Amino acid sequence: MVILTLLGVTLDLTIRYKVQADSFDQAERVASQWSAAARNGIVPHRMPAYPPVDLVQIVDARMRVVDSSRAASDVRPLSTLRPPPDDRFQRRIECEEGRRCVMLMAIRLTPEADAGVVFAGLPEPSILSTHSLEYFIAGGILVLVSVAAWITWALVGRTLRPVDAIRARISEITVSDLSLRVPVPPGRDELAQLSITANQTLARLESAVRQQREFASTTSHELRSPLAGLRTQLEEALTYPDEVDPRETIRTALTATDRLEAIVNDLLVLARLRATDAPPEPIDLGDLVCAEVKLQPHRLPMNVRATAGLMIRGSRMQLIRVLDNLLVNAQRHAESAVEITVDRDGDQAVVAVTDDGPGVDPANRERIFERFVRLDDSRRRDPGGSGLGLAISRDIARAHHGTLRVEDSAKGARFVLRLPLADRPGGPADPRPAPGALTPARKADGGTIGNIGD
Questions:
Q1: How do residues 261-319 score in pLDDT, each as one tens digit?
Q2: How far is CA 295 from CA 9, 337, 419, 436, 438, in A?
Q3: Which residue did the predictor score with more confidence, 386 or 318?
Q4: In this model, does residue 133 exceed pLDDT 70?
Protein backbone atom coordinates (compact mmCIF):
# COMPACT_ATOMS: atom_id res chain seq x y z
CA MET A 1 0.00 0.00 0.00
CA VAL A 2 2.86 2.39 0.78
CA ILE A 3 4.52 1.71 -2.57
CA LEU A 4 1.27 2.11 -4.48
CA THR A 5 0.52 5.36 -2.61
CA LEU A 6 3.89 6.81 -3.59
CA LEU A 7 3.32 5.73 -7.18
CA GLY A 8 -0.20 7.23 -7.09
CA VAL A 9 1.03 10.61 -5.81
CA THR A 10 3.73 10.66 -8.48
CA LEU A 11 1.21 9.77 -11.18
CA ASP A 12 -1.22 12.45 -9.99
CA LEU A 13 1.43 15.19 -9.99
CA THR A 14 2.71 14.10 -13.41
CA ILE A 15 -0.75 14.15 -14.99
CA ARG A 16 -1.61 17.53 -13.47
CA TYR A 17 1.67 19.05 -14.68
CA LYS A 18 1.17 17.61 -18.16
CA VAL A 19 -2.42 18.84 -18.53
CA GLN A 20 -1.54 22.31 -17.24
CA ALA A 21 1.49 22.61 -19.52
CA ASP A 22 -0.53 21.49 -22.56
CA SER A 23 -3.29 24.01 -21.76
CA PHE A 24 -0.84 26.91 -21.46
CA ASP A 25 0.91 25.81 -24.67
CA GLN A 26 -2.41 25.90 -26.56
CA ALA A 27 -3.21 29.36 -25.19
CA GLU A 28 0.27 30.58 -26.07
CA ARG A 29 -0.06 29.43 -29.68
CA VAL A 30 -3.38 31.26 -30.12
CA ALA A 31 -2.10 34.38 -28.35
CA SER A 32 1.00 34.42 -30.53
CA GLN A 33 -1.10 34.23 -33.72
CA TRP A 34 -3.31 37.18 -32.70
CA SER A 35 -0.31 39.16 -31.46
CA ALA A 36 1.25 38.96 -34.92
CA ALA A 37 -2.10 39.83 -36.52
CA ALA A 38 -2.56 42.85 -34.20
CA ARG A 39 0.90 44.23 -35.03
CA ASN A 40 0.00 43.92 -38.71
CA GLY A 41 -3.41 45.60 -38.22
CA ILE A 42 -5.52 42.75 -39.60
CA VAL A 43 -7.61 41.89 -36.54
CA PRO A 44 -11.40 41.70 -37.02
CA HIS A 45 -13.70 43.15 -34.38
CA ARG A 46 -15.15 39.70 -33.63
CA MET A 47 -12.18 37.39 -33.48
CA PRO A 48 -12.78 33.70 -34.40
CA ALA A 49 -12.07 31.13 -31.70
CA TYR A 50 -9.72 28.15 -31.83
CA PRO A 51 -11.26 25.59 -29.47
CA PRO A 52 -10.58 24.84 -26.76
CA VAL A 53 -8.99 28.32 -26.57
CA ASP A 54 -12.18 30.29 -27.11
CA LEU A 55 -11.43 33.30 -24.88
CA VAL A 56 -9.42 35.88 -26.83
CA GLN A 57 -9.11 39.65 -26.20
CA ILE A 58 -6.95 42.54 -27.33
CA VAL A 59 -6.78 45.46 -24.88
CA ASP A 60 -5.07 48.86 -25.23
CA ALA A 61 -2.67 50.57 -22.83
CA ARG A 62 -5.59 51.65 -20.63
CA MET A 63 -6.86 48.05 -20.40
CA ARG A 64 -9.88 48.74 -22.59
CA VAL A 65 -11.11 45.90 -24.78
CA VAL A 66 -10.41 46.65 -28.43
CA ASP A 67 -11.29 43.32 -30.01
CA SER A 68 -12.57 40.02 -28.58
CA SER A 69 -13.86 36.58 -29.48
CA ARG A 70 -17.52 35.72 -29.23
CA ALA A 71 -17.07 33.83 -25.93
CA ALA A 72 -15.11 36.66 -24.31
CA SER A 73 -16.53 39.93 -23.00
CA ASP A 74 -16.08 42.99 -25.22
CA VAL A 75 -16.16 45.34 -22.21
CA ARG A 76 -14.43 43.69 -19.29
CA PRO A 77 -10.85 42.45 -19.79
CA LEU A 78 -10.04 38.81 -18.91
CA SER A 79 -7.28 39.95 -16.57
CA THR A 80 -5.61 43.06 -15.20
CA LEU A 81 -2.20 41.54 -15.97
CA ARG A 82 0.04 43.78 -18.09
CA PRO A 83 3.39 42.14 -18.89
CA PRO A 84 6.43 44.42 -18.57
CA PRO A 85 8.48 45.35 -21.65
CA ASP A 86 11.33 42.98 -20.67
CA ASP A 87 9.01 39.96 -20.14
CA ARG A 88 6.31 40.12 -22.81
CA PHE A 89 5.01 36.55 -22.41
CA GLN A 90 3.35 35.67 -19.10
CA ARG A 91 1.02 32.96 -17.88
CA ARG A 92 -1.64 33.24 -15.21
CA ILE A 93 -4.64 31.42 -13.79
CA GLU A 94 -7.49 33.83 -13.12
CA CYS A 95 -10.16 32.70 -10.66
CA GLU A 96 -13.33 34.50 -9.67
CA GLU A 97 -15.71 33.45 -6.94
CA GLY A 98 -18.59 31.40 -8.27
CA ARG A 99 -16.98 31.02 -11.69
CA ARG A 100 -14.62 28.52 -13.26
CA CYS A 101 -10.94 29.43 -13.30
CA VAL A 102 -9.37 30.48 -16.61
CA MET A 103 -5.86 29.62 -17.79
CA LEU A 104 -4.54 32.73 -19.59
CA MET A 105 -1.59 33.59 -21.76
CA ALA A 106 -0.83 37.32 -21.89
CA ILE A 107 1.47 38.74 -24.62
CA ARG A 108 2.51 42.42 -24.76
CA LEU A 109 2.38 43.54 -28.40
CA THR A 110 5.53 45.71 -28.31
CA PRO A 111 7.94 47.05 -25.69
CA GLU A 112 6.55 50.60 -26.17
CA ALA A 113 4.72 52.22 -23.25
CA ASP A 114 1.41 52.47 -25.11
CA ALA A 115 1.49 48.89 -26.40
CA GLY A 116 -1.59 46.75 -26.04
CA VAL A 117 -1.91 43.23 -24.69
CA VAL A 118 -3.34 40.05 -26.22
CA PHE A 119 -5.13 37.64 -23.87
CA ALA A 120 -5.86 34.05 -24.90
CA GLY A 121 -7.30 31.51 -22.50
CA LEU A 122 -9.47 28.53 -21.89
CA PRO A 123 -11.47 27.26 -18.93
CA GLU A 124 -9.39 25.21 -16.53
CA PRO A 125 -9.81 21.46 -17.40
CA SER A 126 -11.99 19.54 -14.95
CA ILE A 127 -9.11 17.21 -14.17
CA LEU A 128 -7.36 20.24 -12.62
CA SER A 129 -10.36 21.97 -11.12
CA THR A 130 -11.74 18.89 -9.32
CA HIS A 131 -10.34 15.95 -7.36
CA SER A 132 -11.68 13.29 -9.70
CA LEU A 133 -8.15 12.21 -10.66
CA GLU A 134 -7.20 11.71 -7.03
CA TYR A 135 -10.37 9.73 -6.37
CA PHE A 136 -9.73 7.53 -9.37
CA ILE A 137 -6.12 6.83 -8.35
CA ALA A 138 -7.12 6.16 -4.74
CA GLY A 139 -9.80 3.73 -5.91
CA GLY A 140 -7.29 1.92 -8.08
CA ILE A 141 -4.85 1.69 -5.16
CA LEU A 142 -7.54 0.25 -2.90
CA VAL A 143 -8.51 -2.32 -5.52
CA LEU A 144 -4.90 -3.39 -6.09
CA VAL A 145 -4.17 -3.53 -2.36
CA SER A 146 -7.32 -5.58 -1.76
CA VAL A 147 -6.40 -8.03 -4.53
CA ALA A 148 -2.82 -8.29 -3.25
CA ALA A 149 -4.03 -8.83 0.32
CA TRP A 150 -6.44 -11.55 -0.79
CA ILE A 151 -3.78 -13.31 -2.89
CA THR A 152 -1.28 -13.08 -0.03
CA TRP A 153 -3.84 -14.40 2.46
CA ALA A 154 -4.68 -17.31 0.17
CA LEU A 155 -1.06 -18.19 -0.62
CA VAL A 156 0.14 -17.88 2.97
CA GLY A 157 -2.85 -19.85 4.19
CA ARG A 158 -2.15 -22.62 1.69
CA THR A 159 1.52 -22.57 2.69
CA LEU A 160 0.79 -22.66 6.42
CA ARG A 161 -1.83 -25.39 6.27
CA PRO A 162 0.89 -28.09 6.32
CA VAL A 163 2.53 -26.24 9.23
CA ASP A 164 -0.74 -26.35 11.14
CA ALA A 165 -1.06 -30.05 10.39
CA ILE A 166 2.50 -30.61 11.62
CA ARG A 167 1.78 -28.59 14.76
CA ALA A 168 -1.40 -30.56 15.46
CA ARG A 169 0.39 -33.89 15.03
CA ILE A 170 3.35 -32.87 17.21
CA SER A 171 0.91 -31.83 19.95
CA GLU A 172 -0.41 -35.43 19.93
CA ILE A 173 3.04 -36.96 20.38
CA THR A 174 3.90 -37.81 23.97
CA VAL A 175 6.72 -39.70 25.67
CA SER A 176 4.39 -42.65 26.16
CA ASP A 177 3.68 -42.84 22.41
CA LEU A 178 6.44 -41.78 20.03
CA SER A 179 5.18 -43.87 17.11
CA LEU A 180 3.30 -40.98 15.49
CA ARG A 181 4.92 -39.10 12.61
CA VAL A 182 4.21 -35.67 11.19
CA PRO A 183 2.57 -35.51 7.74
CA VAL A 184 4.95 -34.78 4.87
CA PRO A 185 3.51 -32.26 2.35
CA PRO A 186 4.00 -33.00 -1.36
CA GLY A 187 7.03 -31.64 -3.14
CA ARG A 188 10.61 -31.08 -2.03
CA ASP A 189 10.38 -27.57 -0.59
CA GLU A 190 11.60 -26.42 2.82
CA LEU A 191 8.44 -27.59 4.61
CA ALA A 192 8.76 -31.08 3.15
CA GLN A 193 12.41 -31.23 4.18
CA LEU A 194 11.45 -29.99 7.66
CA SER A 195 8.82 -32.72 7.97
CA ILE A 196 11.26 -35.41 6.84
CA THR A 197 13.87 -34.18 9.31
CA ALA A 198 11.28 -34.07 12.11
CA ASN A 199 10.23 -37.65 11.35
CA GLN A 200 13.85 -38.79 11.35
CA THR A 201 14.38 -37.07 14.69
CA LEU A 202 11.24 -38.70 16.10
CA ALA A 203 12.43 -42.09 14.86
CA ARG A 204 15.79 -41.62 16.59
CA LEU A 205 14.04 -40.40 19.73
CA GLU A 206 11.69 -43.38 19.71
CA SER A 207 14.62 -45.74 19.30
CA ALA A 208 16.54 -44.05 22.13
CA VAL A 209 13.53 -44.15 24.47
CA ARG A 210 12.90 -47.79 23.62
CA GLN A 211 16.54 -48.63 24.35
CA GLN A 212 16.38 -46.70 27.60
CA ARG A 213 13.26 -48.58 28.66
CA GLU A 214 14.77 -51.93 27.74
CA PHE A 215 17.96 -51.00 29.55
CA ALA A 216 16.06 -49.87 32.65
CA SER A 217 14.04 -53.10 32.63
CA THR A 218 17.12 -55.27 32.21
CA THR A 219 19.03 -53.32 34.83
CA SER A 220 16.17 -53.66 37.31
CA HIS A 221 16.10 -57.41 36.73
CA GLU A 222 19.86 -57.76 37.14
CA LEU A 223 19.85 -55.71 40.34
CA ARG A 224 16.83 -57.52 41.74
CA SER A 225 18.47 -60.95 41.64
CA PRO A 226 21.49 -60.22 43.92
CA LEU A 227 19.35 -58.02 46.15
CA ALA A 228 16.79 -60.80 46.57
CA GLY A 229 19.55 -63.32 47.32
CA LEU A 230 21.17 -60.97 49.81
CA ARG A 231 17.85 -60.32 51.54
CA THR A 232 17.06 -64.03 51.72
CA GLN A 233 20.42 -64.82 53.31
CA LEU A 234 20.11 -62.04 55.88
CA GLU A 235 16.53 -62.98 56.76
CA GLU A 236 17.58 -66.61 57.10
CA ALA A 237 20.40 -65.63 59.45
CA LEU A 238 17.98 -63.64 61.60
CA THR A 239 15.27 -66.30 61.59
CA TYR A 240 17.54 -69.27 62.32
CA PRO A 241 20.47 -67.86 64.31
CA ASP A 242 21.41 -71.27 65.74
CA GLU A 243 21.44 -73.06 62.40
CA VAL A 244 23.15 -70.48 60.16
CA ASP A 245 26.88 -69.78 60.29
CA PRO A 246 27.16 -65.98 60.56
CA ARG A 247 30.64 -65.92 59.00
CA GLU A 248 29.39 -67.85 55.98
CA THR A 249 26.40 -65.48 55.74
CA ILE A 250 28.66 -62.43 55.83
CA ARG A 251 30.98 -63.97 53.24
CA THR A 252 28.05 -64.71 50.91
CA ALA A 253 26.63 -61.23 51.49
CA LEU A 254 29.96 -59.68 50.56
CA THR A 255 29.99 -61.71 47.34
CA ALA A 256 26.52 -60.38 46.46
CA THR A 257 27.66 -56.87 47.39
CA ASP A 258 30.63 -57.21 45.05
CA ARG A 259 28.26 -58.20 42.30
CA LEU A 260 26.05 -55.18 43.00
CA GLU A 261 29.07 -52.90 43.16
CA ALA A 262 30.33 -54.15 39.80
CA ILE A 263 26.94 -53.55 38.20
CA VAL A 264 26.61 -50.06 39.70
CA ASN A 265 30.16 -49.10 38.68
CA ASP A 266 29.56 -50.23 35.10
CA LEU A 267 26.25 -48.39 35.02
CA LEU A 268 28.04 -45.23 36.11
CA VAL A 269 30.55 -45.76 33.30
CA LEU A 270 27.71 -46.04 30.80
CA ALA A 271 26.14 -42.85 32.15
CA ARG A 272 29.45 -41.01 31.87
CA LEU A 273 29.90 -42.22 28.30
CA ARG A 274 26.56 -40.68 27.35
CA ALA A 275 27.10 -37.46 29.28
CA THR A 276 30.76 -36.73 28.53
CA ASP A 277 31.59 -34.14 25.89
CA ALA A 278 35.36 -33.87 26.32
CA PRO A 279 37.27 -32.76 23.21
CA PRO A 280 39.28 -35.55 21.52
CA GLU A 281 43.05 -35.60 21.87
CA PRO A 282 45.75 -37.09 19.64
CA ILE A 283 46.82 -40.50 20.91
CA ASP A 284 49.59 -42.86 19.77
CA LEU A 285 47.68 -46.12 19.92
CA GLY A 286 50.82 -48.29 20.05
CA ASP A 287 52.20 -46.38 23.02
CA LEU A 288 48.82 -46.55 24.77
CA VAL A 289 48.51 -50.31 24.33
CA CYS A 290 52.07 -50.97 25.50
CA ALA A 291 51.65 -48.75 28.56
CA GLU A 292 48.35 -50.42 29.49
CA VAL A 293 49.77 -53.91 29.06
CA LYS A 294 52.68 -52.98 31.31
CA LEU A 295 50.34 -51.77 34.06
CA GLN A 296 47.92 -54.67 33.72
CA PRO A 297 48.17 -57.38 36.44
CA HIS A 298 48.51 -60.72 34.71
CA ARG A 299 48.82 -64.38 35.52
CA LEU A 300 49.97 -65.41 32.02
CA PRO A 301 52.52 -63.95 29.58
CA MET A 302 51.23 -61.14 27.37
CA ASN A 303 53.10 -60.75 24.06
CA VAL A 304 52.84 -57.34 22.40
CA ARG A 305 53.65 -56.42 18.82
CA ALA A 306 52.89 -52.73 18.25
CA THR A 307 53.56 -50.48 15.27
CA ALA A 308 54.54 -47.02 16.42
CA GLY A 309 53.12 -43.78 15.06
CA LEU A 310 49.51 -44.92 14.63
CA MET A 311 47.85 -41.68 15.67
CA ILE A 312 44.16 -41.53 16.46
CA ARG A 313 41.95 -38.93 18.08
CA GLY A 314 39.72 -39.70 21.02
CA SER A 315 39.36 -39.98 24.78
CA ARG A 316 42.41 -41.56 26.41
CA MET A 317 40.47 -42.67 29.51
CA GLN A 318 37.70 -44.32 27.48
CA LEU A 319 40.16 -46.19 25.28
CA ILE A 320 42.05 -47.35 28.38
CA ARG A 321 38.72 -48.73 29.61
CA VAL A 322 38.31 -50.71 26.37
CA LEU A 323 41.85 -52.09 26.51
CA ASP A 324 41.46 -52.98 30.18
CA ASN A 325 38.24 -54.90 29.45
CA LEU A 326 39.83 -56.78 26.54
CA LEU A 327 43.02 -57.63 28.43
CA VAL A 328 41.19 -58.77 31.58
CA ASN A 329 38.83 -60.86 29.47
CA ALA A 330 41.74 -62.47 27.59
CA GLN A 331 43.62 -63.22 30.85
CA ARG A 332 40.49 -64.78 32.31
CA HIS A 333 39.98 -67.21 29.41
CA ALA A 334 43.57 -67.86 28.19
CA GLU A 335 45.33 -71.13 28.97
CA SER A 336 48.99 -70.21 28.40
CA ALA A 337 49.47 -66.78 26.81
CA VAL A 338 47.80 -63.68 25.33
CA GLU A 339 48.84 -62.09 22.01
CA ILE A 340 48.29 -58.35 21.44
CA THR A 341 49.00 -56.72 18.07
CA VAL A 342 48.68 -53.11 16.98
CA ASP A 343 48.88 -52.60 13.24
CA ARG A 344 47.58 -50.54 10.36
CA ASP A 345 44.92 -51.63 7.87
CA GLY A 346 44.31 -48.97 5.26
CA ASP A 347 43.06 -45.85 7.03
CA GLN A 348 42.37 -47.71 10.28
CA ALA A 349 44.40 -48.70 13.30
CA VAL A 350 43.73 -52.30 14.37
CA VAL A 351 44.19 -53.68 17.88
CA ALA A 352 43.81 -57.48 18.12
CA VAL A 353 43.74 -59.29 21.48
CA THR A 354 43.97 -63.06 21.07
CA ASP A 355 43.92 -65.74 23.75
CA ASP A 356 44.41 -69.49 23.46
CA GLY A 357 41.38 -70.40 25.51
CA PRO A 358 38.19 -72.22 24.48
CA GLY A 359 37.10 -69.33 22.24
CA VAL A 360 33.63 -67.97 21.52
CA ASP A 361 31.04 -69.95 19.63
CA PRO A 362 30.10 -68.14 16.35
CA ALA A 363 26.46 -68.08 17.44
CA ASN A 364 27.39 -66.05 20.53
CA ARG A 365 29.86 -63.59 18.96
CA GLU A 366 27.32 -60.79 18.81
CA ARG A 367 25.33 -61.83 21.83
CA ILE A 368 28.27 -61.35 24.23
CA PHE A 369 28.22 -57.61 23.42
CA GLU A 370 24.69 -57.25 24.72
CA ARG A 371 24.24 -55.79 28.18
CA PHE A 372 24.17 -58.19 31.12
CA VAL A 373 24.79 -61.19 28.86
CA ARG A 374 27.23 -63.64 30.46
CA LEU A 375 27.95 -67.09 29.06
CA ASP A 376 28.27 -70.11 31.30
CA ASP A 377 32.07 -70.19 31.01
CA SER A 378 32.27 -66.52 31.96
CA ARG A 379 30.05 -67.04 35.00
CA ARG A 380 32.22 -69.91 36.11
CA ARG A 381 35.50 -68.02 35.71
CA ASP A 382 34.25 -64.67 37.11
CA PRO A 383 31.12 -65.01 39.26
CA GLY A 384 31.24 -61.34 40.30
CA GLY A 385 31.19 -59.84 36.82
CA SER A 386 28.45 -57.44 35.73
CA GLY A 387 28.06 -58.50 32.11
CA LEU A 388 28.52 -54.89 30.96
CA GLY A 389 32.23 -54.79 30.16
CA LEU A 390 32.03 -55.78 26.49
CA ALA A 391 28.86 -53.70 25.96
CA ILE A 392 30.67 -50.66 27.34
CA SER A 393 33.70 -51.40 25.17
CA ARG A 394 31.60 -51.58 21.99
CA ASP A 395 29.81 -48.33 22.90
CA ILE A 396 33.19 -46.63 23.32
CA ALA A 397 34.39 -47.99 19.98
CA ARG A 398 31.28 -46.69 18.24
CA ALA A 399 31.67 -43.31 19.94
CA HIS A 400 35.15 -43.17 18.35
CA HIS A 401 33.67 -44.08 14.92
CA GLY A 402 35.22 -47.53 15.16
CA THR A 403 34.16 -51.14 15.61
CA LEU A 404 34.74 -53.94 18.10
CA ARG A 405 33.95 -57.53 17.18
CA VAL A 406 35.09 -61.13 17.55
CA GLU A 407 36.88 -62.48 14.48
CA ASP A 408 38.02 -65.93 13.45
CA SER A 409 41.10 -67.34 15.12
CA ALA A 410 43.02 -70.61 14.85
CA LYS A 411 42.61 -71.12 18.58
CA GLY A 412 40.84 -69.21 21.32
CA ALA A 413 39.04 -65.89 21.00
CA ARG A 414 40.27 -62.96 18.91
CA PHE A 415 38.80 -59.54 19.79
CA VAL A 416 39.56 -56.88 17.15
CA LEU A 417 39.23 -53.14 17.78
CA ARG A 418 39.32 -50.92 14.69
CA LEU A 419 39.66 -47.13 14.97
CA PRO A 420 40.03 -44.49 12.22
CA LEU A 421 43.49 -42.97 11.93
CA ALA A 422 43.96 -39.25 12.42
CA ASP A 423 45.53 -37.15 9.65
CA ARG A 424 49.27 -36.85 10.20
CA PRO A 425 51.43 -34.21 8.50
CA GLY A 426 54.35 -36.65 8.58
CA GLY A 427 52.70 -39.02 6.14
CA PRO A 428 52.21 -42.75 6.79
CA ALA A 429 52.67 -44.34 10.17
CA ASP A 430 56.20 -44.88 11.39
CA PRO A 431 56.95 -48.63 11.24
CA ARG A 432 59.54 -48.46 14.04
CA PRO A 433 58.81 -50.28 17.31
CA ALA A 434 56.76 -48.43 19.88
CA PRO A 435 58.85 -46.96 22.70
CA GLY A 436 56.60 -48.67 25.24
CA ALA A 437 57.30 -52.19 23.99
CA LEU A 438 59.11 -54.23 26.63
CA THR A 439 62.05 -56.58 26.13
CA PRO A 440 62.07 -56.27 22.33
CA ALA A 441 63.16 -59.32 20.39
CA ARG A 442 63.50 -59.20 16.60
CA LYS A 443 61.43 -61.68 14.63
CA ALA A 444 61.95 -62.95 11.15
CA ASP A 445 59.03 -60.96 9.75
CA GLY A 446 60.46 -57.65 10.97
CA GLY A 447 57.86 -57.11 13.71
CA THR A 448 58.61 -56.51 17.39
CA ILE A 449 57.43 -58.64 20.27
CA GLY A 450 57.44 -57.47 23.84
CA ASN A 451 57.34 -60.35 26.28
CA ILE A 452 55.84 -59.47 29.61
CA GLY A 453 56.90 -62.00 32.21
CA ASP A 454 54.87 -64.85 33.53
A1: 777 776 776 666 655 556 778 999 999 999 888 888 777 888 899 888 899 998 888 88
A2: 89, 17, 22, 11, 12
A3: 318
A4: yes
Backbone angles phi and psi of 175, in degrees to 5? -65, -30
DSSP calls for 82-94: ---TT--EEEEEE
- The residues, any chain, with a CB within 8 Å of residue 30's CB and separated by 6 or more, are 50, 53, 56, 105, 120
What is the DSSP track for 276-305? --PPPEEEEHHHHHHHHHHHS--SS-EEEE
If 0-12 CB within 10 Å is exposed, 13-18 middle and 19+ buried, where does residue 13 land? exposed
Contact 399, 273 (CB under 8 A): yes
The CATH T-level fold of domain 281-452 is: Heat Shock Protein 90 (3.30.565)
Q: Measured between alpha carbons, how far is 248 from 266 in angstroms, rounded to an integer?
A: 27
Beta carbons of 221 and 205 less than 8 angstroms apart:
no
The answer regarding whether domain 174-277 maps to CATH 3.40.50.2300 reads no
Euclidean distance between CA atoms 373 and 379, whole angstroms: 10
State the distance between the two ends of the chain, measured CA to CA, in whole angstroms.
Answer: 91
The answer for residues whose C-beta is within 8 angstroms of residue 119's C-beta and 6 or more apart is 31, 55, 56, 57, 58, 59, 72, 77, 78, 79, 104, 105, 106
Angstrom distance (rounded) from CA 20 to CA 103: 9
Q: Same CATH fold, 281-452 and 2-130? A: no
Task: Break the chain into its structural domains and give their ranges.
Answer: 2-130, 174-277, 281-452
Domain 2-130 bears CATH identifier 1.10.20: no
How many CB atoms lie under 10 A from the CB of residue 348? 17
